[in-house]
Amino acid sequence: MRRKTKATRAMASMRNLIGKLQSYWLADASFVTLLVMLVTAVFILPIIMELSGKGVLLFNILLLSVFFSGIFSTRSMGLIALSATLFSVHLALRLIRFGENPYSFFVLENVIAIANALVFIFINLRLLFRDQSVNAYRIVGAINVYLLFALMGALALEIIHAVTGSSIGGNVVLTGTDNDYPHFIYFSLASLTTVGFGDIYAVNVSARMLATFLSMLGMLFPAIVIARLVGLSFKPE
Question: 212 pairs with which residues across the strands?
Fold first, then answer.
């Protein structure tokens, strides 16, 4: 009887914790937490990876943490199930690669990660426009989606390089491992913002088409999403 009571209490505590996590990630304030995670992943982590050998582990932990939050960022059971499934598969593949075994599914890992990113982008866009409210948090949320596109571009470049043996060239030396992430996220951001510094460039058709696609996204995003938010803010009461 006591065991049942303890088990019931443990389950109640777990449900309460999950409920609190979901309530937070469904609130506008959660956009700030996600922004900190994404800024770290996109701008700070590449520097850490260049200076420290522990950056790869931090990259994987941070990437998984971002996608894990997607499970609690929606009330749709279908999206929760999809996000949880993709996260679980992604986590399992990462553990296999970093475990003591000869197996590795590098390409599949990144395919699942991109699928997870797309689902997370969709979830965040739904949160952005879930009502007619516009505030500073919603602008932060729009920035988050933009950074998620950049992250997705970097993951896509990893797949291209793993499959074709080439992706980007110029002032860069690629190893075919997670250590290439700083170069990929830099090129992804340069393409997304349509800056194109020219020090790094696409060397095959797949990478060129990806760069073109990211450039198109970079131009359309403010024209559609940001403009929509601005339009809602000026909508008469």
Answer: none
CA distances from 105 to 86, 92, 99 (A): 15, 10, 12
Cα(156)–Cα(164) distance, integer angstroms: 12
**Closest Cα partner for 117 from 168, 81, 64?**
64
Residue-wise pLDDT for 15-44, tens only, equals 888 888 899 999 999 999 999 999 999 999
Q: What is the pLDDT of residues 73-127, one digit of tens each?
A: 999 999 999 999 999 999 999 888 877 666 568 899 999 999 999 999 999 999 9
Domains of the chain in start order, with CATH, are: 29-233 (1.10.287.70)
8 A C-beta contact, residue 123 and residue 73: yes
Rounded-to-integer distance, Cα 124 and Cα 142, Å: 8
